[in-house]
Amino acid sequence: MAGDAQMDPRDLPGLLNPIADGEVDYSKGNRLFTGKAWRVIPKSRYFGNAILSFLTKIASGYWHVADSQSGYGAIALQVLKTIDLETIYKRYGMPNDLLVKLNVYHFRVRDVPINPSTASAKNQGSRSTKSSSPSLSFS
User: Fold this and answer.
1) Distance between CA 5 and CA 14 in Å, rounded?
2) Which of left, alpha, beta for 112 (phi over 0: left; psi -120 to 50: alpha)?
3) 3-state SS, residue 92
4) What tens digit of pLDDT does each residue of 61-105 get?
5) What is the pTM of this model?
6) Residue 93 burial (10 A CB sphere; 0-12, 13-18, 19+)
7) Strand 26-30 relative to strand 73-75: parallel, antiparallel, unpaired?
8) E strands within the chain?
9) Are 20 and 110 in contact (CB under 8 A)?
10) Nearest-angstrom CA–CA distance, 20 and 35
11) Longest alpha-carbon distance in the chain
């Protein structure tokens, strides 16, 4: 979970439970399941997300997964042991690249409804090129 208030901690159990129950290998948040996203997310960002999500469906083969731009998810330990994490794209394309790599190994992926954050709308256009949040390394 990022420290920028764009991910609601109340959504975390919904992401973790399918992993803990062994139902899926990766559960990812989908902000687009509800009509709230249309009201909260800036329209240009919403349409850009739709285009990138469609292209990611083509590239990854996960046609049932939407909102590929959401980085809010949970992943099983077996996936972390299988995928070479050093080869995953490190920036905004990371969720897309991860989906492609998950499909190479036939991992099970599920979309989980999450609340779209108003923080993402407030932060739109005000992002700096440098992050002040700590990053996580798997080395």
Assistant:
1) 18
2) beta
3) coil
4) 999 998 988 889 999 999 999 999 999 998 888 999 999 999 999
5) 0.79
6) middle
7) antiparallel
8) 26-30, 73-75, 109-113
9) no
10) 29
11) 40
